[in-house]
Amino acid sequence: MAVTLKDVAADCGVSPSAVSQVLRSHHACRVSPAARERILASARRLGYRPNHISTSLRRQRSGLLSLILPWNNPELMEVMEQEAYRLGYRLMTNFLTRPDLDREIALLNNSLDWQVEGLFWLPYADLSAYPELLLQRLRGSKARLVFMQRRLSDVPGCLVGTDYRQGMRDAIAHVQDQGYRHVVFLGTSLNFEIKSQRQNYIQTECRERGLPCETILLDNLPGSDASASLV
Fold it and tell me: Which domain holds residue 26?
């Protein structure tokens, strides 16, 4: 039989509400440090595990956040997971190993099905590529939508992004200051808007500074061929 909050409370001689504050909240609570340690020790000894589904139903909130990216970004995922945990949320991380609109749509629908409270999303395609039914769900969802790097028009949400134009300007200026006179843009397919923007900004800055700029794409090349192309 599963261990309950009442079992933990009886074991360490405190009220169930005190146990709930300690075990169900990541925020500061009104339980003394000594009582908190007793509660945590009892929970570990008895093997208490929280029932997230029950908690979500009782609170009418999922406590879930979803992150959907078109590529793997371990550093970003780690920082977001740490911050989500600190604030009492659980983060669902999803990334596409290759361009796959159908899977991206499935991940978005799955996030909405789980009634996430926040959706962090870097759209891979343009607005017209997404089905209207999905766009309607996004518009009507209670989840806070945060677009990363680029946003879709006609879908409400805030935008968090990087100023790639200034970044590329600073990068080329640094290269030139170091005495280099030839720039190579090395990457993969440019069929993603952000990658195309980076290349365009680099080419524009090089042209304005009178520097030659070459583009090398390593799409669909085995490791040895990609290395040879790089050399």
Answer: 5-50
